[in-house]
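User: Need the bound-state model for 2'-deoxycytidine-5'-monophosphate:
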Amino acid sequence: MIIAIDGTTSSGKGTLAKRLAKHYGLPHLDTGLLYRAVAKAAMDAGVELKDEDACVRLAAGVRLEPFDERELRSSGVGAAASVVASLPAVRRALFELQRNFAQQEGGALLDGRDIGTVIAPHADVKLWVDAAVEERARRRFLELSGIGENVTEAGVLEQLKERDARDAARKDAPMKPADDAVWIDTTTMTPEECLARALEVVETRRR
Ligand code: DC
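Assistant: Bound-state model below.
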């Protein structure tokens, strides 16, 4: 079984993806981390984020192991990831790794922005996870202040809106729900309710 989870930043898709993968014993790839790793490698090497050729070289053979996951999840790296993710050649360079992961024997679960539309259009289950932007900003603010980042909720809200706009507007594989994705709006849901809803969807598809 292949499960594709797409959605907006801080919608709860990451938490849902981890729990759902654990529930079904599926290998899980958080594809946002790949873009984050490319962005971090570019930042470390002093490479311009818009320098497509240089970023492609960094994307080819990218690995997550050398990076500290907490650092990859910082807001600075997230914003940079959104910029490198808009480079078509970088997306192409990361395509095969993701496609192979999706097609491994025994199934897989991937989460990102274009899993149901581009990476695994034949996924058995596609979920689109979203929440009101103010609620996402509140969650992200708590997360970032929790790891010691000096941010305000209003600042986070602005950044989220900017990121959503960039991710949705790019020409190549823009962030959007697949036509056959099931929507989960997590605005007023707890993570447990979100998992329960997703399990319902998966079990219905399996029957
Ligand atoms: O999910 P995230 O916040 O870790 O993703 C970081 C950035 O990477 C996000 O701004 C959009 C981009 N991304 C993408 O374009 N395609 C994916 N499949 C995953 C992430």
